[in-house]
Amino acid sequence: MPELFERSRIHLGVKYRSNVIKFNHLSFLWLLAAVSVLSCAKNPIDKKPEEIGNPTEANHLLFVGNYDNNLYALDSRTGALRWKFSTSESILGSPTVASNVVYFGSYDHKVYAVNAADGKERWSFQTGGPVYSTPTVSDNILYFGSSDKKVYALNASKGTKIWEFETDHYVQTSPTIVNGILYIGSDDSHIYALDAVSGTFKWKFAARHQAPISTTPTVSGNMVYVGSYDKTMYALDAASGELKWKFEIDDVTYASYTSPRVVNGVVYVGSDTGRLYALDTQSGAFIWLFEGSGYSGHATIHRGVIYIGSAYDKLYAVDAGTGKEIWSYDTGGDTRSGPTVADELIYVGAGNQLMAIDISTRTTKWVFEPILSHGIGWFLSSPTVLIDGKVYYPGISGSHP
Question: What's the pTM value of the predicted model, to 2 decimals?
């Protein structure tokens, strides 16, 4: 990546006609280059829609980052562009919304806070490395990791640093905060538990073979679930970090990129060969296996159905109870970002397109495609949707099954 450049705000700079936005075709070599960084995309923690305040300030908006250096805000009903905010490098992580402010990191080493309604910058914070991590907001504190090996806590209103904690390698994963404890993985092979207020170290757990942990931990009950590059799914005691069980993924390579999802006593985890596993949360016992096509993306669970994409241009709907395929949808592009479900639409990135798919009819409602003057327009970030004062993220979206 080039060195840091001057950033600029560009509003309404993308042209569109009808509900499909076009841009110049990319060469096959450029597509391969984009695919090589897909593992950097991160997703927010699993959560139900959040109430954020006055819904009239910003409504029916979808926020998503792109490899073309832009954060886009689209009308969630039509796909029309509302605004875009430009940084000097790619945006690979997913945005977080709190109190009508959008927070996101960039490869330009910065984290930004912009108004949800119009995209105007409130503040930015400089780190020492690219930021893949999706920020998390709790009690007006913004938490995220950076490739400078650090975990940061900032005042969410001002962008001023409260504390930082240094690990021994890149922190590409996103933080999960439960009961005042922050859980986050590092490429130094450890998952860390820190006091969310002070940053004080609580415990750490090491994966085998010095394997990086580059997925967001999921906390459910008194357990923390996280996958690693060592082909292993770990379940840890949330208070002590003690290993409760582990499940070795019988795969060609490893389960590393997809964050676990937990619903109704079952933990679901994908792998880079297209397999989706269902395991018992208490024992790690195998329940079922779904065979997809190619590298699987991050899963979202909505009303008993798991929605998960793949590298081979597919979005799958899988029965959460049985692991049986309900339907598949040809997206026309690499679909490894996590889908988000809101208002009975599935929002998902597919290569250089961001699309909305109607759940009931399985038809495309709209497609957004940026116009580029140069470079790559790949949607590696997962979309975040704001409707009527509620924020929808990938993971556990809408009503629980």
Answer: 0.85
**Among residues 147, 61, 127, which one has the least CA distance to residue 97?**
61
User: What's the CA gap between 283 and 49, in Å, rounded?
Assistant: 29
Instruction: Name which of 83, 64, 157, 69 is nearest 113 in CA terms.
Output: 157
Tell me the C-alpha distance between 318 and 291, whole Å: 10
Q: In the chain, what is the straight-line distance between the N-terminal and C-terminal CA atoms, in Å?
A: 42
Say if CB 105 and CB 134 are below 8 A apart. yes
192 is written with which tokens?
């860390």
Among candidates 70, 98, 94, which has minimal Cα distance to 84?
70
- Could you list the mean pLDDT of each consecutive 10-residue stretch along the chain, which spans 401 residues? 26 29 33 33 42 61 95 96 96 94 97 97 98 95 97 98 97 94 96 98 94 90 92 94 91 61 92 87 96 79 93 91 95 87 94 94 95 76 93 67 25
The Cα 24–Cα 73 span in angstroms is 21
- Strand ranges of the sheet holding 286-291, from the earlier edge strand across to the other edge: 261-263, 266-270, 275-280, 286-291
Of 150, 173, 86, 164, the closest CA to residue 124 belongs to 86
CB-based contacts of 36: which residues, under 8 Å, 6+ apart?
none
Q: How far apart are CA 277 and CA 272, in angstroms?
A: 12
Both tokens of residue 398? Answer: 């809408």
Q: Which residues contact 344 (CB under 8 A, 6 or more apart)?
A: 358, 359, 360
Residue with tokens 């109704």: 264
Phi, psi at 295, each rounded to 5°? -45, 130
Instruction: Provide the β-strand partners of residue 291.
Output: 275
φ/ψ (deg, to 5) at 296:
-90, 150
Question: Rounded to the nearest 5°, which phi and psi values hold at 29?
Answer: -65, -35
For 57, counting Cβ atoms within 10 Å of its Cβ (0-12 exposed, 13-18 middle, 19+ buried), the class is middle
Q: What residues contact residue 209 under an 8 Å CB cut-off, 6+ apart?
A: 189, 230
Give the residue among 291, 307, 299 at the shortest CA–CA distance from 359.
307
Local structure of residue 321 (DSSP, 8 states): T
**Angstrom distances, CA of residue 40 to CA of 135, 149, 365:** 14, 15, 28
